[in-house]
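Researcher: I've been going back and forth with a colleague about how Permease prefix domain 1-containing protein might be arranged in three dimensions. Neither of us has a model we trust, so I'd like an independent prediction. The organism is Paenibacillus spongiae, in case that matters for your notes. Sequence below.
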Amino acid sequence: MSHIHNHVDHLFRGYRQTKQVAELKKEILSNLEAKAADLMAAGVPQSEAIRQAIASIDNVDFLMDGRKKIELLPYCLELVQIALLYMLVAWVATIPLGLLGRLGQLNFFLLVIVIVAGLLFLALLFGKKMINRRIVSTYNYKAALRARRLAWLLWGLYILLMTLNTTALEFGSNLWFSRPVSISGPYQFAVLGIRYALPFISIVIPLLIHASLKLVHKYEAGDLQ
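Model: Here is an independent structure prediction for Permease prefix domain 1-containing protein. You can compare it with whatever you and your colleague have in mind.
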């Protein structure tokens, strides 16, 4: 099967021949030869079996730079479903804000996002049923890992800054002049607790990025099968 060997050599022509590249090259060669052998065992002529095996992979860029190939529609469908669930929880949690004036605008904003996410989910569900072929797309896994770390870092920094900001607004003068903090009644205590808790709703953003990474493994396309 010299044609397969030549094809694999061509795939890796632009890469430095490190140990990692050599192992990957050997694995791909073994997979393509096994695929050709399976096709020939099924009655496909040797030349056609080799052609089909070679055609099953035309580049290795997605393997070399950390990119993965995923089945696009089911991946997007489940990711939007997770986003919809998170937004529903956030919306329900902020329903009491409707009693607190301007803070109630956040609840309405989340309701709009829930509706948009629901419509997008229905559209993807309909599209998945109507399109009778597998759509494969490339996912930059290494970049997503960096994005996840950055998202959690920024979220932690945001929570810290918002906590300090709320503390400064609510108790700045008390702390500056060393006066005792006074909370007059359950209502003020509830409003104060809500002001501290509201920024934590933003956790849905890093959670969605985390979920997107987990779904990559679930919907990774097997090109070399």
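Researcher: What would you highlight for our discussion?
Model: I'd start with this: Strands lie at 67-71, 136-140. After that, consider the following. The chain has two domains: 2-64, 69-218.
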